[in-house]
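Input/output pair, single chain:
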Amino acid sequence: MKISKRIILFYSFLFLIGCSNMKLNDFANNVPIFKIEEYFLGETSASGLFIDRFGKVKRQFTVNMEGIQDGDIFILNETFLYDDGEEEFRKWIISKTSETTYKGESSDIKGFAIGERSGNAVNWNYTLKLKYKDDIMNVKFDDWLIMQDENRVFNKATMKKFGIRLGDVYLFFTKKE
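Output:
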């Protein structure tokens, strides 16, 4: 059983690396249905890395998350721990705007994050106010989350500045039981 899960994870990772022009409709018939407010409710952890446009791993990190449903809004608290020892906290406030669309806000997001789901995928688009040296750089994210099963979600986010791809962030989420 362990070997088959590893094979699935490996091929899923290769799939995400090769995806450059994914379309949300391509996931319409895929299961399980991915609802962020259900998957991220409670505790979730992730490990990830940032690979620059030249293929170099620039940063690795882990994330511990807690999702809380508070009436009509969903709160997602994320604590990032980077390989250089830096720790970062992000609080998302997420609202459903329809059965398949979301609006998210956070203090380090410019404006709002706009999300849409179809089948087992969610696609977010937003501008992150990224700390860069002693300044802030606005970076556009095209963020894809693909649910593999009820416990695992893969994430690939492409970062761009002035339309130029800076690199990709890969995350592997695991639901804590």
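The longest strand covers residues 135-149. The longest helix spans residues 2-18.
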